[in-house]
Design brief:
Elements (H helix, E strand, L loop, with lengths): L22 H12 L3 H37 L5 H32 L2 H21 L1 H5 L1 H15 L5 H9 L1
Helix pairs in contact: 2-3, 3-7
Length: 171
């Protein structure tokens, strides 16, 4: 079993004991593990909701950026300006989404006490290790190792994505 405890939020299995995997259930499980108060719950849920609403909007806006990139690549001669416009648009969307994530995480950080912040870091570390264990077969396969390492170090690992994003725009 993992490090998730039980609190006023109920257990991870839900009322009928069946496992839940929706975003709301994950957030409730996180809140229970952090033993948050109802006031903290509201602040954290609002922060999550704000970020996920922005992420939904970003997904819609990315369709436009992807269309520009696809159009540039599909032409007989690569349209460098259209490609750059699409990549720039994609980069702007990513920057806006990262700014919203930073703001949301700041609100979560502010809502938690020092002990809860430490617990949150422990949970993130545990989750990362759990995902690495569950994907150990892919990580062990030379064909997929680089992709798994990229996913966990660059995407899930929480590192600074700016260098990666610059490289992608340059490509």
């Amino acid at each position: 079993p993992g490090p998730f405890g039980h609190g006023h939020h109920g257990d991870f299995g839900g009322i009928d004991g069946q496992a839940r995997h929706g975003r709301g259930d994950v957030v409730r499980t996180l809140l229970a593990a952090l033993e948050t108060t109802p006031g903290q719950d509201r602040a954290i849920v609002q922060a999550f909701d704000s970020f996920f609403e922005r992420a939904r909007d970003a997904g819609k806006m990315r369709q436009s950026a992807h269309a520009k990139i696809a159009s540039a690549v599909a032409s007989d001669v690569l349209d460098a300006q259209a490609l750059q416009a699409g990549l720039t648009h994609e980069g702007e969307i990513g920057s806006e989404l990262r700014a919203e994530l930073a703001a949301s995480l700041s609100r979560v950080h502010e809502a938690l006490d020092p002990q809860q912040r430490k617990r949150l870091a422990e949970l993130q570390r545990w989750q990362s290790e759990r995902l690495l264990r569950s994907h150990a077969d892919l990580r062990a396969n030379p064909r997929y190792r680089a992709a798994v390492e990229f996913f966990f170090s660059e995407l899930y690992g929480g590192g600074d994505p700016r260098a990666r994003d610059r490289d992608l725009r340059r490509v």
